[in-house]
Amino acid sequence: MSSKSANYSSRNPPPSNRQLLIVFGIFTGLIVGVIWLVMWVASSLIWLIPPSVEQQLGALIVPAYERLAAPTPAQNTLNELLNRLETKLPPEQRQNRDYQVLYIPEDTVNALAIPGDRIIIYAGLLKQAQSENELMMVLGHELGHFAHRDHLRSLGRSVLMQIAIAYFLGDAGWIQSAAASGIAAISNAQYSQSQESQADEVGLTLLQKTYGHVAGATDFFARLSQKQKVDVDFLATHPAPGRRVKELQRLIKQQGYQLGNKSPLPPTLR
């Protein structure tokens, strides 16, 4: 018997490259399908999470940001502005909630909502604001993410994605790595265009209810769209500012909102 016949008989020829590619494609498709299903389930279950559980989750994440925050007059003023917006929220969005701003004195231009009812505002973003109205739009936008629970959805998808991948790769330490990725997932959350539009719509509504007009709603994003060299994490985790401006203008026209006089920034925020 020859060495060639010892490896493959005439009835069992070696698999062709095409067959191998088909098997690989089926296997890859199966993995992608399972991961997609996990992400869909995670997104669907978000609305079943009660605020009390979210607060417990926040207790694990918020301290990391509290260590970076600076309890300055600026933070106090930001919370006063947030309180004004909060009073305009529907009752069901205020019940059992304790929204607060954590001001982080870093030059990064970013803002984010994290579990535990905290809105993170970086000093770099504050330096970009030129009116109280545009700053209120940013705060209202983050309240919009709370309203639609986008922060939890992003966290859930990221952690569950890591768990699913670790399962297929046989990583026994997936629990530790998944837990460690929680804060990073929140910091680098990238929402879809529809999620951002929904959050913007909440921000516009709060701006209208607070001032009786929506002047300043597009200013912050319009200014960012002109920035070229600046540490703007906002540009990495949100849709392009120019596109945001167009979508905001569409929403303003659709809702029939009017423009008015903008209020200057409070002295402690200048």
What does this structure look like?
One of its GO terms (molecular function) is metalloendopeptidase activity. One of its GO terms (biological process) is proteolysis involved in protein catabolic process. Belongs to the peptidase M48 family. This is Peptidase M48. It comes from Aliterella atlantica CENA595. This protein has 270 residues and is mainly alpha-helical. The chain has one domain (42-269). Helices cover 63% and strands 5% of the residues. The chain is built from 13 helices and three strands; from the N terminus they run αααααβββαααααααα. The chain has helices spanning 3-7, 17-45, 51-66, 73-86, 91-94, 123-128, 132-148, 150-169, 174-187, 193-211, 219-224, 233-237, 241-255, and strands at 100-104, 111-114, 118-122. The protein has a three-stranded mixed sheet with strand order 1-3-2. Strand 2 (111-114) and strand 3 form a beta hairpin. The longest helix has 29 residues, at 17-45. The protein is elongated.
Describe the structure using short key phrases:
270 residues, single chain, Mito/Outer_Membr_Metalloprot, metalloprotease, 3-stranded mixed sheet, mainly alpha, transmembrane
Give a short summary of the structure.
The chain is mainly α and 270 residues long. The protein is built from 13 helices and 3 strands, in the order H-H-H-H-H-E-E-E-H-H-H-H-H-H-H-H.
Count all strands and give the number.
Answer: 3
H/E element order: HHHHHEEEHHHHHHHH
Q: What are the low-pLDDT stretches, counting only 5+ consecutive residues below 50?
A: 229-233
Rg (CA only):
24 Å
